């Protein structure tokens, strides 16, 4: 299984990870703000379709690496984005419409399934309007899902800012022929 996301269709990328279970534990790391803040972003989720999703990004919580100047404010002070729950099926499926990342909104879905003593996580992000956004989002999910794996395995968190720019350029090259 590759760590790289794959383009599904115009403006859509899909990631798959096999993580240590049980499924309820992975679900908690995806949906509970305090656990999610250790690998992605904090913020509460109202646990029902139509509920509000708060996405508070403060990368100084997930890495001690210095950020690039363009990300310093978000890294140090944080940035709140929002969304609306579009699917809530514990512990198998959580989806939301993501607002505030740019125009237009986009859609994120986490699908979990049991795979023996592991959990298959499939993350799909749709409605990414430009090639630049597709590369940025793809590199971000790649890195954040790696940090989730580190949290679940008890490994030392891997680098984030030290590889972000390189990985974003790599995704731009990998996705250059995708129609968006």
TrEMBL record:
The lineage of its organism: Bacteria, Pseudomonadati, Pseudomonadota, Alphaproteobacteria, Hyphomicrobiales. It comes from the Bacteria. It comes from Bosea spartocytisi. Pfam families: AHSA1. Residues 22-150 form the Activator of Hsp90 ATPase homologue 1/2-like C-terminal domain. This is SRPBCC family protein. Belongs to the AHA1 family. Coiled coil: none annotated.
């Amino acid at each position: 299984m590759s760590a790289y996301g794959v383009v599904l269709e115009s403006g859509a990328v899909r990631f798959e990870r096999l993580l240590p279970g049980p499924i309820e534990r992975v679900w908690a790391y995806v949906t509970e703000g305090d656990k999610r803040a250790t690998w992605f972003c904090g913020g509460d989720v109202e646990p029902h379709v139509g509920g509000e999703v708060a996405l508070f990004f403060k990368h100084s919580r997930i890495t001690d690496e210095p950020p690039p100047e363009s990300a310093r404010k978000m890294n140090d002070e944080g940035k709140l984005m929002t969304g609306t729950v579009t699917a809530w099926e514990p512990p198998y499926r959580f989806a939301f419409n993501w607002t505030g990342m740019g125009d237009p909104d986009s859609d994120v879905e986490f699908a979990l399934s049991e795979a023996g003593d592991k959990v298959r996580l499939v993350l799909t992000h749709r409605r990414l309007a430009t090639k630049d956004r597709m590369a940025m989002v793809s590199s971000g999910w790649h890195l954040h899902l790696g940090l989730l794996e580190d949290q679940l395995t008890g490994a030392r968190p891997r680098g984030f800012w030290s590889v972000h720019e390189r990985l974003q350029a790599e995704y731009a090259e990998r996705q250059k022929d995708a129609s968006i």
